Amino acid sequence: MSIKICHVTSVHSRYDVRIFKKECISLNKHGFDVSLLVNDTIPSELIDGIKIVSTGRIDDNKWKRIFIGVPRMRRELIQIDARVYHLHDPELLTLVRFLKRKGKIVIFDSHEDYLSTVGVKEWIPKFFRKIIRNFYEYYERRTIKLCDGAVVCYHWTAERFSEICRQVQMVLNFPIVNNGWKIKQNDFASRSLCFAGGISRQWCHHEIVKALGIIGDATYKAAGKVSDDYLNELQNLSGWDQVQFFGKLNHNEVYSKIYSNSYIGVVLLDYIPQCKFTVGNLSNTKFFEVMYAGLPIICTDFDLWKEIVDQENCGICVNPHDIEQIVSAINYLLDNPEIAKQMGENGRNAVLNKYNWSTEEKKLLALYERVLNQTS
Q: How far apart are CA 281 and CA 275, in angstroms?
């Protein structure tokens, strides 16, 4: 009889790429009976072998999600009655003791290094940020000790968790690859930069648009969700008339409308706490998706990213706040299409051979094997 696993998320979409398309499908493919419990108002369904169970409710703010949504999920957890519960959000740590008392195996999946980010969350009033960070540090440490395993995305999270949890595995967000998928061959005549993801301040769009205004003859294809206030700021910049803004697109549309019609992929993430400022991280999907699309990349000069870019010769790293560096990198690639094309091919080959989900899937399955063996 298949071992029953229940993945649980209080905030992510039921079709979330990491949770559903990568982890749940990989586990199901290897013989596990997988359910996914979500907070939404879409009917429950069976898709790709995964039983998606909805609470039938969605909470309209973070506080309701924590204090109303999570307790509501307890009732569904009891009904599902899995052997392993795989929790995906920090507020779900409050379920660990409840599940352990019922004799369940619990794995916590830390999508971010929450200890690095909780003290800078804008939705938390400034006066309380340090207090909440200290409380979270204390609560995380006590609760992770109770977990049977942990999945992490950052090296420093792995180091911290390894002190208190027996089984810790870093599983990175490398893309799912389709070896038959190819980028169009006429992209390198477009003189077009691109970005797909969150259109927010941390992605340094101000600097990119300003650089466009200096270059003059390049366009910037941008797609993603954006607040009205931030969009208005960008629209007032001198280079905005060179921006083609597509709004929010689904995953397939990003490849067909953005990557397939672009010359350069731009991934300028700011030096944020989540990246340990200049260190960077290897769980940002945008970095590897641009490489997979066969585009030369202009990216932040994080230590971890620069190591890959230099090793694979797939792009140029810059300080995301240095307009001159950004302009110089864009002009170099625009003026050297053969070099740019070769960089794009180098990046794609690196993803096909190394930086893809099949390598991470093995790590996830190995973690499950170790956890199940230690609890059998």
A: 6
Same domain assignment for residues 269 and 201: yes
The CATH number of whichever domain residue 345 belongs to comes to 3.40.50.2000
pLDDT, position 186 = 42
Residues of the chain with pLDDT under 70: 1, 67, 119-123, 179-189, 376
Joined tokens for residue 1: 């009889």
Structural domain boundaries, residue 142: 4-173+356-375
Residue 180 domain-assigned? no
Percent helix, strand, coil in the chain, to 5, is 50, 15, 35
Kindly report the number of other CB atoms within 10 A of residue 241's CB atom.
11
Handedness of CA 247, 285, 37, 49 (dihedral sign): positive
Task: Please give the Cα distance from 88 to 110 (Å, whole number).
Answer: 7
Residue 35 resides in a domain:
yes
Separation CA 359–CA 135 (nearest Å): 35
Q: What is the pTM of this model?
A: 0.89
Strand partners, 9: 38
Categorise residue 31: left if φ over 0, alpha if ψ from -120 to 50, beta otherwise: left
Q: How would you classify residue 103: left for phi > 0, otherwise alpha for psi between -120 and 50, otherwise beta? A: left
Query: Taking the CB of residue 134, how many other CB atoms lie within 10 A of it?
Result: 12
How many Cβ atoms sit within 10 Å of the Cβ of residue 255? 17
Residues 19 and 168 in one domain: yes
Write the DSSP symbol of residue 122: T
Measured distance CA(172)–CA(153) in Å, rounded: 5
